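Notes continue from the previous slide.

Worked example: a multi-chain complex. Inputs as given:
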Amino acid sequence: MKELNAIGKSVRKLDVLDKVTGEGTFTADLHIPGMLYAKVLRCPYPHARIKKIDISRAERLPGVKAVSCHHNTTKVKFNCSALMTFTVPPHQPVLDEYLFGEVLRYVGDEVAAVAAESEDIAAEALKLIDVEYEILPAVFDPLEAMEPEAPVLHEENPAGKNIVGGKVQIPIGDIAQGFEDSEVIVEKTYKVPVQKHAQIEPHAAVAQVSAGGRVTVWSPTQNPHPTRHIIAHLFELPLSKVRVLNPPYVGGAFGGRIGFSGKAEGIAVDLAYKTDRPIKIVYERDEDFVGSVTRHSGYVTIKIGAKKDGTFHALQVETVLNKGAYANYIDPVGVLGGMALGVYRAPYQYFDGWSVYTNTSPAGAMRGFGNPQGAFALECTVDMMAEKLGMDPKELRLKNIIKPGDPWCLPYPCQSTGLAECMNSGAERIGWKNRGKLNTGEGSVRRGIGMAVGTHVSNSWPFCGDYSNVYVAVQQDGSLYVASGVPDFGTGIKTSLAQVAAEALGVDFSQVYVTVGDTECTPYDTGSHASRSLYCVGGAILEAVEKIKSKIFEYAAEVLETNAEALKLKNGIISTGDGSKHLSLKEAAYSAHLQGLQFVEVGRSAKVNAPPWQAHFAEVEVDTETGEVKVIKLVAAHDVGRAIHPGIVEGQIEGSIIQGIGYALSEEICYNEKGKQIQTDFANYMMLTAEDIPEIETIIIETLDPTGPFGAKGVGEPAMVPVAPAILNAVHDAIGIRFNEIPLKAEMVYAALNNSK
Amino acid sequence: MNKKVLKFILNGKTVEVSVSPSDTLLDVLRDQLYLTGTKKGCGKGECGACTVILNGQAVNSCIIPAMKASGQRVETIEGVGSKDNLHPLQETFADMGAVQCGFCTPGMIMSSKALLDQNDNPTKEQIKEAISGNLCRCTGYVKIEEAVQGAAEIIRKQNNG
């Protein structure tokens, strides 16, 4: 194996000094001379039409410079998510919202906005906006929304009442035949909750329109280029007149800002136009909870048919997800199906799924994007099958997991899998052989061990438009400059891209400078989601560096009077194999510069995808007197292809696990009978604190996928996937009860324990 | 506008600002003194992103009325170490993966510093308790705890000479 210089090292990340000193600028930290502050008026009803809206009193309040509502704002229909800019035919993007609508479809929907000299004045002005609403009937559950008597939320629903876009079906063989041939069948329906990103930096944007009509937007968007596209669409501008950039730091995202951050960017630009002043809008925390996308909640039904020896024969996945009030990202439905069918071999497979409009906050992208929902249902059901067959759940899985070469439903080949090794190493570390043997029968606490596995993707090709272009240039002093349109919102991508570039070119990591997240100086990049940044941008960097190297060698060959093929570049020195002729990259770059030549290229990502694989093992304690479930230890074994920066990889896994435990046990958003969101702050949205975390052990397995940069695959989302089912399977091992709903709260466990007595 | 004069000791130096009765300490730091290292994550004292040290204690500045700081000692992230002379917490946070998005980082460092200023040999439980009011959505807290342990070790070595 070739010795690596920059790859595989947990170097100090390039952004940390700004962050540990407090000098790093986030959107809300920006101060521009003349800046005004914006606040938003939100609808108090779950479904209403504005009969009359009078903004005149608000406009007259001293310090108020503009008030926007549906009367005086763009009438262009759009979709807040980046998906509207890269939906691939034959699919059509669902454009079903306005910046300020006349019909409002959830408690929190934007009615109006004010720009004023201070936040306080803007907030006062909101109270002076007079709105007369016609209250319309509302519906909050997706199954109820499909009933004949349910209100219709949007006009066009060709696939069925309140169904968003089309139904997704993945048929492989005759599924009815598959179940007829099966010798053992299990089936169950599961309920999954609304989860919220709850990133610590609230949604925000700062917008400025120059005298020449140039629009600049600073925001925490995960996708500067697509967001630029949405703004250009909304305000009917040429793309070249719009610049979107991160300021440069973003306080977390987890899928909540793929496109707009709530509606902050659009509202800020609209008010910037009206006032000719820079506008800052920062969401309050409760606004962030209510006025921006959530994870899709809903129902998932799994049916597995197997032979008596445990071979899976038929696998059926069905889902109805709650879309909320607007379409935003509709793909979690398809991803749920594709990922649930992408783990195990079975000759007969079937997926049928769709999402349904309801009068609740819109659901969109959130870490895992449908996969955590499907995996929860699937992996709990696989354990049910193991029990019915009298087989060890790990052995049942090992028998059926997909291997490279097996047919599967996904439109790209599986070229690497370390899932078996993940399972075996994880099982060893958790003490899998102790399953069922941890309880002495004494005391009220029961212990159990459970497992779950899963897969994911390394980008979203070919499901939607997904590509990266990266600009790579050798500077006149031999240092390397890389410019990419992806943002770094904590993933450390800036650093890992520098490592990839350094390794590929043959220079020291300290010689590479990376700029990210600004549409002004980068070619188009889809952005950061679908665990794609390193896989895609890294791949594009490799393409650019290959081209640059051949140009460097061509130039150096002339200078050194040798053949280009004889040259290599290592540690910043271009030399022949025996070292007899050499030239530093610094010397080559500068002398080339004097002759009017720079080594500069654009690299492009390839149309490829690769599955990461993961196996989680949880040890839990259940207090039978209170029903409380506590995770004691979680072992996470991940096939990441290659860990470019092991510390970053561990950090992504650890962070996902904690979000996953919240998903399993404590985080949920509910709506009362009037459609009002109940959990709107950190006091009642129960995220884990430092005192709640279990012992976590991470095992990194490297299978070196042939399609990834140095073999790397995606890692941002995979660890979100198996946590909940591993925990619920462990609870079953502890107390013998299976639950089909998360979050698994103490009262649910307590009730079940008492019912079974 | 009923403005009052607020005088306090900020990062070792006396400062004087004019504040409204409704201003919080966080408002004063960010909007008047332009010290934006201290962050607003919730405005209700629930996330800890606004943590500063007031007379040696970690507090949520977003729920401290500005006038409460009158005559008191306030430390913010800007007063902790410097580019050329990082505080041990800044070193370990930087090197041990305790920083991802960085939004919770200033508050996390201030809560940790308040602990280590009093106790340079904290147990794991004491560290967890000290940062239990600081929410982090990115790291899962694992590497943050390790970084605080690492900083404590450096500080102990410094204290023992």
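Summary box: Residues 155 and 161 of chain B are 10 Å apart (CA to CA). Residues 142-159 of chain B form the longest helix (18 residues).
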